[in-house]
Amino acid sequence: MRQASLFTAFVHLSNAPLGGAFSPSTLPSAASRVSTLLRNASPSSTATEPPLNPLLSKIKPSKTVEVFSLVKQMEAEGETVTSLCVGEPDFAPPQAVLDAATAAMANGHTTYTAVTGTLELRRAIADDLKSRKGIEYNPVTEIVVGNGAKQCVYQGLLAACGAGDEVIVPAPYWPSYPEMALLVGASPVILETSVNDGYLINPEALDQCLKDHPKAKVLMLCNPSNPTGGVHSTDLLHQIAQVVEKYPNIIVLADEIYERLVYTQDGKCTAFASLPNMFSRTITINGFSKSHAMTGFRLGYLAAPARFAKAASVLQGQITSCASSVSQAAGVAALREVEESWLENNAVIMKKKRDYVLEELGKMDGVSVAVPPDGAFYVLPDVSKYYDGDDTQLCLDLLKEKKLALVPGESFGAPGTVRISYATSMEELEVAMTKLREFLEGLS
Ligand code: PMP
Predict the structure, then answer these.
(1) Residue 412 belongs to a domain with what CATH number?
(2) Interface pTM, i.e. ipTM
(3) Strand pairing report for 216-222 and 166-171
(4) Cα atoms found within 13 Å of the Cα of residue 364, Cβ hemisphere only
(5) What confidence tens digit (pLDDT) does each residue in 36-87 have?
(6) Distance 146 CA to ligand 1 centre (A)
(7) What domain range includes position 42?
(8) What is the dihedral of CA 11, 15, 17, 18, to 10 degrees?
(9) Which of 37, 188, 284, 309 is most buried as measured by Cβ atoms within 10 A of its Cβ?
(10) Which residue's alpha carbon is at the smallest distance from atom 7 of ligand 1?
């Protein structure tokens, strides 16, 4: 097996500053940039420069965002890169959404809205949550629309915990969770999950973890999961809720942004807040990026009991005011006008892509998908047989040699794996699987 062969070359090449100029069409500059980006975690200052906030020394940049920026950079330099790194649907938003955005601009809906969002959108969200999930949120006091679910997760965390508190983050995790916990001054506590449990939360392990961590204030629950695609069944969620009930200080931050992409027989993703006694304990996060392919609209929401929603709106009022008025009009159309069949059809197409990727990975030597994903649009194959498990180096070499961009599993708390996002065209997936197979065959 070939070891970290190109790393020294990468380091040797990486003398350009991060924001430095790139000479066109030169792989070395791009290669040096990927090495710097993936290996250097945090910004620094020289002795002569005013220092940055010391908090930054604790925060790692998002590798997904970095790999994606690098892909864009390489493309700008004339490279053709196959990118399976970013969590972005490849289909366009529904026409009704685009029309609503155009109409909003034409009709002068271009000003600030209420911090928590237009009442029209909050009502649409409340109706949607009630009809599909069986949870009743008051649109006036219990829903806050923000600039994407990411901002809502951050505000939810900031509302629920702070310095000295702990945040339980089940691994593999969405990399922003531990970093956001640090940003709010809390400490992330990683709760390992096992392949045998399908990478889902084990209720006994959770119970033990909460017993061991009396300072814990928040449990992050990503369902369906990024990066594993795991979906917690209703029964398992009930068991988790029973554990949570034993710890009155715990708030569950239920990030359900992938809930429209579930491939199990019943296609169901139960909302944690809908479980008995869990409404008052849950901050629900959702949005429009994954379900309606509206990533660039930057529109998400938080739904929670009034005191959390109020806290989140106070924070948002000081940080960004409101989400874009145009995006909010588009969000209303997404919930009021888009046919259920449009969403269901996307899930059917995505499932076909999942099946194709699983089949292709199954043919590759030394690659195993112990837990086939039931939702979202990610697979997290184990590739630890290669590079002595150094997944970052594997991704670096794969990008350099084959121009295929994947994200190292290490950044998701899953060393020895790589995360593949299959939310792209079948043609692109076919190219990607060929590149990956050829690359790994070259290593054997
Ligand atoms: N939560 C999870 C688990 C995600 O994967 C993402 C996007 N990658 C988000 C939240 C944020 O979504 P957005 O800000 O685009 O609404």
Answers:
(1) 3.90.1150.10
(2) 0.99
(3) parallel
(4) 27
(5) 555 544 555 567 889 999 888 899 877 777 788 888 889 999 999 999 998 8
(6) 12
(7) 7-88+342-443
(8) -20
(9) 284
(10) 87
